Every structure is written in structure tokens, then in C-alpha cells.
Amino acid sequence: MKNDVVPVDIRGILPAPTGCAIFVGNDEKVFVIQVENNMGMVISMFLRDAPKERPLTHDLIALIFEGFGITIERVVITELRNSTYFARLILKQENELGKKIVEVDARPSDCLALATARKRPIYVARRLFDQVEDMSEMLAKMNENNDDTEST
Mean pLDDT, to the nearest integer, of 104-132? Predict the structure, then answer.
């Protein structure tokens, strides 16, 4: 798996005309996944460990997994097809009967939310990482502009 995937983190979340831009990457490259505005807010809450009055949907899913002895092992953003990203949620269930690994097709936004909520690793398929446009400079400029705006 080590050569097939690249470890990444969420490097930034910024409002965009059609929702939120989630900047995902590492020191080598950063790329953008567009998500709905509410998903951007949820992922941001999980990143900040913001307190919530009631469990959000992704909290509920994680609690159900926990109740059945299932852990989120990792998420992998796997491909880009027709301007849509695809991802896999890798789950592990271990009990007296043995260990079972299950891969579930899921939206990258849901995978990012669950991984962030449970502090689990995020990966990108190497072939996808190699093909996406590097947005590191754009993120740096946007962060500079935000810093300038906040300090005035």
C-alpha cells in the first residue's frame, strides 16, 4: 500500500462560490475538492474539535460503528472521474470470530468528515495525486490575504 497511496492532511477550508473548497495535500502538493457548504462547516468543526450540543450525522455513524466494534482504519481518495472525486472508507471489525476489513464506496466529503472526527489517516491514490493540479501557491496567497484582512 505504501507506494500506491500518498498520506495527506486537510490544509485549509475556504468558502467558494458553490460551497467550500477543501485543500488536501502535503508538503509536495495541495489540491482542491469542492464540497457542499454544510460539509465544509462540519469538517471545519471536527478539525477544531468544536463542541456540539447534539451528535452530528458523522458522530452518529462513528458511534454506531463503535457499538458494533468497527473502527475506521483510514480513508483513501481514489479517483477523479467527470469532475467528481471518489473515495473509499476502510473499516475494520475485530472480535472473537476474527478480523474483517471492509472497503465502502463513499463521498470524499463524508470520508474527510469521518476521518477528521476520529483522527484517522487520509490518503490519496498515487496515480490521482500525480494527476491533480498543485494549488499550494493559491492556498498560500489566500492565507496571506486572510491574514492581512484579519490584522486590519
Answer: 96
